[in-house]
Amino acid sequence: MQFTISREALLKPLQLVAGVVERRQTLPVLSNVLLVLADGQLSLTGTDLEVELVGRVRVDDEVAAGEITVPARKLLDIVKSLPDGARIDFSLDNQKVTIKSGRSRFTLATLPATEFPAVEDGPNTLSFELQQKQLKRLIDAVSFSMAQQDVRYYLNGMLLEINPEFVRSVATDGHRLALCTLHMPVEGGAQRQAILPRKGVMELVRFLGDSEQPVRLMLGSNHLRAQTDDFTFTTKLVDGKFPDYERVLPRGGDNLIHADRNELRQAFGRAAILSNEKYRGVRLILEEGQLTLVANNPEQEEAEEVVTIDYNGNAFEIGFNVSYLTDVLNALVSDTVRISLADANSSALIETSDGSDALYVVMPMRL
To answer: Does 367 reside within a domain?
Structure first.
């Protein structure tokens, strides 16, 4: 195996693929990246047995095809440390890889490619295409609401729901819920639901761009595969049943608040400074045309913010975790926001004023 490649061409796929590789592994080969050279194209594969990412790049000069695995982190550190515009000569001899660039020379230990495991996948039962920016939006709009290390393991991920007329992403940690819908016809799209694990979601969004380039999603019974021209990503699915999110969506919230999203977000950010560091509670005092935010902490310190809003409902108080509200306001992509509340004990339904693709539910808290 021998080839020449530029530093820049190798660095991007290597950074993404190495991100999948865990530093601490039970199998030594899982700390490595698989390199396969054939027909002038170099494939780089990283996996932790749950997710797998394959990056593809053309080489400048292929001398001899072949395959081998090398330590992912060391190879990445070497390539990053080389100067911009550097040319890299890569060769394999006696199970040792030699990397030369200018006056630099590195020799890396290897493990055979035959030891490298593949993520098991079955046949694909559904396949459809959408734009990269559309899939990125579905993930970005909801991923912050995924649970982390919850005993309800099916919450530690994102629900992807496919319908003949739309694709929807949903995430919840039990205290808040985020939902984003992309209305589009899905070829051969029967009603399907799949739960992507948290790591799979975070790795998938890393290689998606804000472009109209296509990404093909292939869904099987226990895996999801996403394929672009440069990458193929595979993740196992979470084997569980996601809660019926439709039941959580508040109905009949007739107290409507319309406010400037950025002004509200900044006010929440300032009030949060003096909130209780553990519970992050903030009181919302609603009056006609005005919202007052009050935060306290155990040191008897207090923050108060007054925001002008469009509100004509009843006057009442309600408490929320300020971090949850700020996360939602950061995820929304409009200038104005609409918040629907039924009473002081009900969840808030938050969306853009024009009711676009995403909506959010945040449970209240007692203060």
So the answer is: no
pTM over the 0.85 mark: yes
Neighbours of 155 (CB within 10 A): 24
> Dihedral, CA atoms, 252, 258, 260, 261, nearest 10 degrees?
10
Domain that holds residue 179: 124-246
Report CA torsion sign: 301, 306, 311, 312.
positive
pLDDT digits (tens, 9 = 90+) for 145-173: 999 999 999 999 999 999 999 999 999 99
What CATH number does residue 327 fall under?
3.10.150.10
> Tell me: the pLDDT tens digits for 67-117?
999 999 999 999 999 999 999 999 999 999 999 999 999 999 999 999 999
Tally of CB atoms within 10 A around 80: 11
Give the span between the Cα atoms of 297 and 303, in whole angstroms: 9
- 218 DSSP β-pair partners: 127, 225
Residues 226 and 133 in one domain: yes
Which residue, 215, 246, 277, sits at the end of a domain? 246
